[in-house]
Amino acid sequence: MNKLQSDEALTRVTLDASRRNIPIELVPRDKVKSLEEAAEALGIQPANLLKTLVIKKSDDTFVFALIPGGRKLDWAKLRSQLGVNKLSLPDSGVAWDVTRYESGTITPFGSHSVLPVYIDASVFEEPVPEHIGLGSGDRGHGLLVHPQDLVTGFDATIADISAPE
């Protein structure tokens, strides 16, 4: 991703957050190699750093599934939540087409396509974190947001859709 693409991604994220009245913090960071490094760069616990997965339904529509660090998507639970029999994880090219973000930077904020957002219920177990981390559309930044602001701003669904890794 070149500087122009990076700036454009961060602008999309910032504008979308503003339109949704969601306070966010973009945190500059160096390249990271692990969940732990990424969480440390944001000043949060690894369990509070969420990966944003683009999930394809059998009718060729998509949803976002936000899964905390240390957990994995539970396909059966998500199928049940969505009332479908088949889901898949599209390749990075399809994810790019849907979001206009590179794999590893995907976020619901400023996505090219507006998709339903499903957040794993474990994020809201007590004590609920002050902030969670997400991709920012750019490898040089992380994004911090209060979990309830994310739910409210995206009208997200909180559901049990993960399992321990």
From TrEMBL:
Highest taxon of source: Bacteria
Pfam families: tRNA_edit
InterPro entries in alphabetical order: YbaK/aa-tRNA-synt-asso_dom_sf, YbaK/aa-tRNA-synth-assoc-dom
Matches recorded under SUPFAM superfamilies: YbaK/ProRS associated domain
Domain YbaK/aminoacyl-tRNA synthetase-associated: 31-151
Alphabetized PANTHER family for the sequence: CYTOPLASMIC PROTEIN, YBAK_AMINOACYL-TRNA SYNTHETASE-ASSOCIATED DOMAIN-CONTAINING PROTEIN
The protein's name: YbaK/EbsC family protein
